[in-house]
Automatic annotation (TrEMBL):
Database matches in PROSITE patterns: CRAL_TRIO (PS50191)
GO molecular function, one term: phosphatidylinositol transfer activity
The protein's name: Random slug protein
CRAL-TRIO domain residues: 79-242
Region (Disordered): 289-308
Biased composition, class Basic and acidic residues, residue ranges: 289-300
Length: 308
């Protein structure tokens, strides 16, 4: 590799990486506005990192996400649609960040209050979109703080675990900075052995076990958080706890911000993409590219942009 190819751009990518970002963008072709915003240089780089900078594999992964976003419309989910799932505080965005300024999602598996995997996934996606919208401009990753106090085997669902791993890894790559598993029970080790194969090695390595009675692991919490801010359940000093009514107010305010977030793009996705936009009414299938013969012979890889 030449010295010129190693030089970093203003965004931190070297010339070779920037060339791969541009190559992937060309393979995608023109996109409608929201997808164009989503496919910023930063987003494309996340997909490339998730596939070790393999352009063919990253292109297929990103096309699958674009198809999913067109059908699932995650940015259009609103609080009132998922409020029932949130009542027990099983997942919520905290009102504090870690010491690096990253958004924190608190998860409490014992607080599962519904049976529908479809509804549970809908709420998880809502939480992910909200967490991304609230990331500082310089951050791409978030923190998951998972409270296992009171967790038992009745809380475990193989189906939900599998679907969660799939959606997070395939459609939100490189979004996890660290996951803290706080006070997992003794029987959790075989559970973790079962779950781990669903995860990419890079993701699995971001999972940290922390025990309240182990000073060595508690140092992870001290290094990561201001203990004055975090909940007492995690060894902090905040005794207020989760209040669904107050949280609903926060989320409804965030819902009002979501349209403008997508209208202008955001640093969490990156500057608005510089590929050409399609006018409303056009329809196309970006898998009809020279890449198709190599990596996209599956129907699931097709992305259609329809009228409206």
């Amino acid at each position: 590799m030449s010295e010129d190819s190693k030089k970093s751009t203003s965004n931190g990518w070297d010339k070779e990486q920037m060339d791969k970002i541009d190559e992937l963008r060309r393979l995608l072709g023109p996109l409608r506005e929201k997808l164009s915003i989503y496919c910023s240089d930063a987003s494309i780089a996340r997909y490339l990192r998730a596939r070790n900078w393999n352009v063919k594999k990253a292109t297929k992964m990103l096309k699958d996400t674009l198809k999913w976003r067109l059908e699932y419309k995650p940015e259009e989910i609103r609080w009132d649609e998922v409020a029932r799932e949130a009542e027990t505080g099983k997942i919520y965005r905290s009102n504090y960040a870690d010491k690096h300024g990253r958004t924190v999602l608190v998860m409490r598996p014992r607080c599962q209050n519904t049976k529908s995997t479809k509804s549970q996934m809908r709420y998880l996606v809502y939480c992910m979109e909200n967490a991304i919208m609230n990331l500082p401009q310089s951050k791409e990753e978030m923190v998951w703080l998972i409270d296992f106090n009171g967790y038992n085997l009745s809380n475990f669902s193989v189906k939900l675990t599998r679907e969660t791993a799939h959606v997070l890894q395939e459609h939100y790559p490189e979004r996890l900075g660290i996951a803290i598993l706080y006070n997992p029970p003794t029987f959790f080790e075989p559970f973790w052995t079962l779950v781990k194969p669903f995860l990419e090695p890079k993701t699995a390595n971001k999972v940290k076990f922390v025990y309240a009675d182990d000073p060595n692991t508690m140092k992870i919490m001290e290094d990561l958080f201001d203990l004055d801010q975090i909940e007492s359940a995690f060894g902090g000093k905040d005794n207020e706890g989760f209040d669904v009514n107050k949280y609903a107010e926060r989320m409804r305010e965030d819902d009002k911000r979501m349209p403008s977030f997508w209208a202008r793009g955001h640093a969490s996705y990156g500057e608005a993409a510089h590929q050409p936009l399609l006018p409303t009414g056009f329809s196309f299938n970006p898998t009809k590219s020279k890449l198709d013969s190599d990596v996209s012979d599956e129907k699931s890889g097709q992305v259609f942009i329809s009228r409206g």
